[in-house]
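Dear H.,

Thanks for agreeing to be a second pair of eyes. The structure we're designing against is below in token form, covering all 231 positions.
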């Protein structure tokens, strides 16, 4: 998103929304014209403890969702991309945000006010069911992460995270991850120090598993990475 940004109209947002929520018949009530906004890379959308007045649908771009430790260390929970929705669980529970969200790239987000979300949940059982499916999927991912922290080494978790990024965001024909990620963000996703992450990437390179240059990481041997990750 370079130069002047052209925001999508409500009809375009609705079409994009249907790609995620396939059973919803008319998502029009969810999209108010003044709730579609563009955000530059590095913009903090909301932080932990913020009262949640609504949730967000990612029309375009990538955001990172994270929590911050006592010493300011980020723990990235996940990345959200085009077609994802986030923040709705805190809205439904009427709790303050339990995570922080920052744009990892220039992005266009559609804000869905809490009153509009609640109305649609009450009036549309299929939409409520699909939201529940997303929440259950996220819970499963959280449970897996807790197990990995307890049972897997950092080297094994790194392999798993690289494969997860490849699955969620895709890879180029030459094996390069489509998601360009900084060493700091990758270490915060794996749950280790940046210095440890850099050392492990060097070990991976020596073992013929990856090539890393700047924010670009190329997977050279996905099958071996799967074995290392325990998948």
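And this is the sequence the design step returned. I haven't edited it by hand at all.
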């Amino acid at each position: 998103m370079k130069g002047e940004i052209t925001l999508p109209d409500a009809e375009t947002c609705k079409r994009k929304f249907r790609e995620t929520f396939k059973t919803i018949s008319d998502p029009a009530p969810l999209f108010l014209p003044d709730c579609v906004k563009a955000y530059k890379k590095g913009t903090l959308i909301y932080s932990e403890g913020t009262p949640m007045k609504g949730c967000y649908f990612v029309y375009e771009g990538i955001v990172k969702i994270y929590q911050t430790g006592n010493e300011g260390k980020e723990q990235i929970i996940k990345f959200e991309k085009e077609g994802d929705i986030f923040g709705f669980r805190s809205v439904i529970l009427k709790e303050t945000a339990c995570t922080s969200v920052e744009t990892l790239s220039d992005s266009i987000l559609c804000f869905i006010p809490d009153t509009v979300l609640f109305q649609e949940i009450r009036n549309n059982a299929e939409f409520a069911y699909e939201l529940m499916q997303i929440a259950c999927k996220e819970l499963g991912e959280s449970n897996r992460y807790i197990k990995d922290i307890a049972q897997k080494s950092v080297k094994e978790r790194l392999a798993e995270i690289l494969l997860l990024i490849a699955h969620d965001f895709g890879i180029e024909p030459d094996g390069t991850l489509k998601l360009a990620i900084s060493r700091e963000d990758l270490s915060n996703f794996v749950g280790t120090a940046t210095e440890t992450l850099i050392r492990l990437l060097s070990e991976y390179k020596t073992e013929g598993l990856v090539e890393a240059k700047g924010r670009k990481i190329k997977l050279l041997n996905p099958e071996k990475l799967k074995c290392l990750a325990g998948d």
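Two observations from my side: DSSP finds eight helices and ten strands in the chain. The helical segments are 10-20, 88-93, 114-123, 125-151, 154-169, 183-190, 194-206, 222-229.

Warmly,
E.
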